Amino acid sequence: MLNMAEGVARLGALAESPVVSTLARAFDAAGFELAIVGGPVRDALLDRATNDLDFTTNARPDDILRIVTPVSTTQWDIGRAFGTIGAKVLGEQVEITTYRADSYDGVTRKPTVEFGDDLDGDLVRRDFTVNAMALRVPAQTLIDPTGGVEDLLGERLRTPTKASVSFGDDPLRMLRAARFASQLEFTVAPETLEAMAELRETLSIVSPERIQGELVKLMHADDPVRGIRLLVDTALMHEFLPEVPSLRLEVDEHHHHKDVYEHSLTVLQQAIELDRERHPDSPPDIPLRIAALLHDIGKPSTRKLEPGGGVTFHHHDIRGARMAQKRMKALRFDAATIDSVAKLIELHLRFFGYAEGAWSDSAVRRYVRDAGPELERLHILTRADVTTRNKRKASRLARAYDDIERRIAELADEEELASMRPDLDGNRIQEILGIGPGRDVGEAYRFLLDLRLDEGVLGAVEAERRLLEWWTSRS
């Protein structure tokens, strides 16, 4: 709960910090207004950490650049056309933007930039009331024309103007509502929710890159599930990631299976908790979180109702990996993230064969080889995928995975498992067989790798003997 007295004290400390006071003096001396705006003000009132300092002013970009140059070590004006100048002041990065009065064309969502002269007018055009507050400096006056403090007290997200108008100006704000709901643990005002559902199709005019960026920010939240539920309930998720709402399978009265949607959200929560336990000082693992959310998206298209009430989802892991690749490419994710997520989805069922019967050393080596750099994430995802309420079954699966991790560690110590290479490299294979580069070398390499996986380290002499034996029989 927001304590206003403590919040005001934190605002004062923010205004008196070296970076803010340096800029406040410089703008005041030049005869211009300056205010800290948006997230830093909100977070100071809520006693939340903030990483960025955003300012707004009635100074135009050329004036901003002239004022900040003497008090900063670096300046950049890549956002000059939109009124934004960046600078590094006392080692801290800041952005200063001229008061804005944007209007949008309603088709491409590209703003027509109009500079304003009034702070209240600038604030009213922002996305939510809790982000539409400013602290004038050096006077330390809180400006709140749309009731942001009241909404902070009520832990509520509401648009400064009519929600349909605000979202019509920029449909991406609907995704921001889900993100802030998760980050701040706030509820969304009913009229705002209604507008999100009504205007969901307007998201089509927003670029995939911007949607992807907002999705990633949501997945960074401590509890992204709150925002995901909001996007699914308003049907917004269907506009850019329809595989998630499709997890809400219809349940036939004669066939019984888990609620795949709820299961996926639980797996996501458990993966986040396990990742924090294992890597408490690391930032949120976005590929892991996305894989946890999407790991079962192949189930709807592979579901088969069996006689007697059973339900199967054969090969949903392979189907799901392909679906995730296609969707993430459409959202312009980078290749490394796409590959990580697809690999995790493809392998997320592999362990359950181990739980049914102990694997040979060869099977463990192949598990490590196939997971490659995703092994640690696969450990977490596989453990998180256990959501059964049957305590005996959950305990059995946990013990089995403890065992496989122990065996991986032991084999790694004995055999340098992480490197997972044959005893002979490509150059040596060519020398032994008297051949040049080509397909035969690749086949020979794979033969030796299979030996390595099946039997462990052979040594160069034995590997050479087995290679020649294979080559002779092949010829």
UniProtKB/TrEMBL annotation:
* Domain (HD): residue spans on this chain: 260-370
**UniProt keyword Coiled coil present:** yes
The EC code for this enzyme is 2.7.7.72
Could you tell me which species this protein originates from? Microbacterium marmarense
Query: What is a GO molecular function of this protein?
Result: CCA tRNA nucleotidyltransferase activity
What's the domain of life for this entry?
Answer: Bacteria
What protein name applies here?
CCA tRNA nucleotidyltransferase
Sorted keywords for this record are:
Coiled coil, Magnesium, Metal-binding, Nucleotide-binding, Nucleotidyltransferase, Transferase, tRNA processing
Q: Which CDD domains match?
A: HDc, NT_ClassII-CCAase
Q: Which residues form a coiled coil?
A: 394-421
Q: Which cofactor does it need?
A: Mg(2+)
Its top-level enzyme class, in one word, is transferase
List, alphabetically, the SUPFAM superfamilies matched: Nucleotidyltransferase, Poly A polymerase C-terminal region-like
Alphabetical list of NCBIfam families matching this protein:
HDIG, tRNA_CCA_actino
